[in-house]
Design goal:
Length: 194
C-alpha cells in the first residue's frame, strides 16, 4: 500500500495512473484528470476533489467518504461498492457509471446525474439533496430509497420504482405510485465494507 496523504495535486494530469491500494486521504486534487485510472480500494477520505475527472476509472471498493467532490465526473466509471458516505457530490455526473452496492448515505447529491447508471443495491437512503436528480434509464434493482423525497426527480419510470426499495415515507414524482409491496428486506451483504 502506498501512503501519500495530504498531497497537493490540483489540476494534475493523472490519466491512466494506477492508485490501487493507495491512501490519498486529505489530498487536494481539484480539477485533476484521473480518467482511465485504476484505483481499486484506494482511499480519498476527506479529499478535495471538486471538478475532478474520474471518467472511466476502475475504483472498486474505493473510499470517497467525507470528500468534497462537487461537479466531479464519474462517467462510465466502475465504482461498485464504493463508499461515498457524507461526501459532497452536488452537481456530480455519474452517467453510465457502475455503482452496484455503492453507499451514498449522508452524501449531498443535489443536482447529480445518474443517467443510465447501474445503481443495483446501492444505498441512497439518507442522502441529502434539494432540487432534481436525473435517473433517466438508471437501473434501480433493490436500490435503497427509503425516506427519500424524489418528487422532483427527473427520468424516473414506474418500472424503476417497482424494482427499488422504498417505504411509506418515500415520495415519488407525480404519476408514479409505490408498488403493492416494496421488494426489499435487509440484505446481509448490502454494505460497501470489505
Amino acid at each position: 500500500m502506498l501512503i501519500i496523504t495530504e498531497s497537493e495535486l490540483d489540476g494534475a494530469n493523472l490519466t491512466k495512473t494506477d492508485f490501487s491500494f493507495t491512501d490519498l486521504r486529505g489530498s487536494s486534487m481539484k480539477s485533476a484528470n484521473l480518467e482511465k485510472g485504476k484505483m481499486v480500494r484506494a482511499s480519498f477520505v476527506a479529499a478535495k476533489l471538486e471538478g475532478a475527472n474520474f471518467n472511466k476509472v476502475e475504483a472498486y471498493r474505493s473510499n470517497f467518504a467525507r470528500s468534497t467532490a462537487d461537479r466531479a465526473t464519474f462517467v462510465n466509471a466502475e465504482v461498485q461498492r464504493a463508499d461515498f458516505r457524507e461526501a459532497q457530490l452536488a452537481g456530480s455526473d455519474f452517467t453510465k457509471a457502475e455503482l452496484g452496492r455503492a453507499d451514498f448515505r449522508g452524501a449531498t447529491i443535489t443536482g447529480s446525474r445518474f443517467t443510465m447508471a447501474n445503481l443495483a443495491r446501492a444505498r441512497l437512503n439518507d442522502a441529502v439533496f434539494t432540487g432534481p436528480l436525473d435517473f433517466r434509464n438508471a437501473f434501480l434493482l433493490l436500490t435503497r430509497i427509503e425516506g427519500l423525497d424524489l418528487s422532483s426527480a427527473t427520468g424516473l419510470e414506474q418500472e424503476q420504482i417497482d424494482l427499488a426499495c422504498g417505504d411509506a415515507s418515500t415520495r415519488l414524482p407525480p404519476g408514479l405510485v409505490p408498488p403493492a409491496g416494496w421488494p426489499c428486506a435487509d440484505d446481509p451483504d448490502d454494505s460497501s465494507d470489505p
